[in-house]
Amino acid sequence: MDRVHLHAMTPADLDAVLALQQRCYGVDFLERREAFEAKLAVTAGLGCCWMARRHDGEPLAYAVSLPVCEATLPALDAPCCERSAAPTLLYLHDMAVSPEARSLGLAATLLAKLAERARALQLWEMGLVAVQGSVPYWQRQGFAEPATLAAPLRAKLVSFGADARFLVQSFR
């Protein structure tokens, strides 16, 4: 296996992020550069967004997360985000692994890094929106649907499509 370098995502990584997104998602789930720029801006200094590259610089995977509460969870392709004054969970907004790198364990590595960051930020849950039939994958990673969803969260979930499901993982 080639060496892989994991680093905090910066705006310089956005071309690679957009290219990976194109390779990994259907057209209904593609986000514009502005949406990623907004997420990077509100998470500056928090270590919530990560990029994995092969030692030669080839982009392999990324993860974008944000400390949020239900009111500040961004909709899909939201052109702006707000930093939550009192976040209740680390929201994994997006994770993509290039098809040729899926056997390298990068999703597990990125997920572990995000769980570490959540604990460091004293957030005891991580949440995500499962799309494209990924609920079984996320359930195997320890995520589950909460018993109830607040109305604002249900409304934002609509932007992700009819089969989107909000899942959480608790660290307590």
What's the helix and strand layout?
Layout: E1 4-8, H1 14-24, H2 33-42, E2 49-54, E3 59-68, E4 89-97, H3 106-120, E5 125-130, H4 135-140, H5 151-157, E6 165-170
Parallel strand pairs: 4-5
Antiparallel strand pairs: 1-2, 2-3, 3-4, 5-6
- The total of beta strands comes to 6
Q: CA-to-CA gap between the ends?
A: 34 Å
Widest β-sheet, arrangement of strands: 1-2-3-4-5-6
- What is the count of DSSP helices, taking H or I runs of 4+ residues? 5
Q: Largest sheet, if any?
A: 6 strands, mixed
Estimate what percentage of residues fall within beta strands. 15-25%
Specify the structural class.
alpha+beta
Low-confidence stretches: none
- Give the rounded overall mean pLDDT: 92
Q: Considering DSSP H and I runs of 4 or more, what fraction of the residues is helical?
A: 25-40%
What is the overall silhouette? globular
Order of helices and strands: EHHEEEHEHHE
Radius of gyration: 15 Å
Task: Tell me what you see in this structure.
With 172 residues, this protein is an alpha+beta fold. It has five helices and six strands; from the N terminus they run βααβββαβααβ. It has helices at residues 14-24, 33-42, 106-120, 135-140, 151-157, and strands at residues 4-8, 49-54, 59-68, 89-97, 125-130, 165-170. It has a six-stranded mixed β-sheet, with helices on both faces. The mean pLDDT is 92.
